[in-house]
UniProtKB/TrEMBL annotation:
Active site: 77 (proton donor)
Keywords for this protein: Hydrolase, Metal-binding, Zinc
Protein residues bound to Zn(2+): 75, 103, 106
The organism of origin for this protein: Mangrovivirga cuniculi
CMP/dCMP-type deaminase domain mapped to chain residues: 5-134
Name recorded for this polypeptide: Cytidine deaminase
Family affiliation: Belongs to the cytidine and deoxycytidylate deaminase family.
Pfam annotation, one family: dCMP_cyt_deam_1
GO MF annotations in UniProt: dCMP deaminase activity; zinc ion binding
Recorded GO CC terms: cytoplasm
Coiled-coil annotated residue ranges, if any: none
InterPro entries: APOBEC/CMP_deaminase_Zn-bd (IPR016192), CMP_dCMP_dom (IPR002125), Cytidine_deaminase-like (IPR016193), dCMP_deaminase (IPR016473), dCMP_deaminase-rel (IPR015517), Deoxycytidylate_deaminase_dom (IPR035105)
Amino acid sequence: MERPQFDDIFMELAVNLAKRSHCIRRHVGAVLVKETRIISIGYNGPPAGTHNCDEEFPENGCGKDSKGSCTLALHAEQNAIIYAVKNNASVSGSTLYVTLSPCIACARIIYSMGIKKVIFLKSYAEYKGLATDEGVDFLSKFGVETEQYSGDLSNVTHMI
């Protein structure tokens, strides 16, 4: 059996974390890594201790803002960064693995926190029907390395 690459391990974890989301529209997971060590994880949903959208708003989910985004939910990237900082972990110089490329608001936070690289599985622009991935464009413009994941998740968890 071949040993899996770290990119495959961390992206698989992000995919599995997405399954924890209570959002009824989209499940997103994120893993923050520094030097091959996980420093934080996150998935999209409302702040801890508030409510679960799929339980309180099972028909339509939580309310929407003027751009059609959830008014209550934190994005997976935000949750991972907040948890790391809350626990005194430095995210500067880290790599973020996320199942959906960052929106522009998350991209600003990622850049401001000094995260050096973002590896994403799927395109936010395709999901939202946008012409371009504004978050990825922003990050690239300001020197944060971005990469769409191209590994293979199908064999990572198989055991001998």
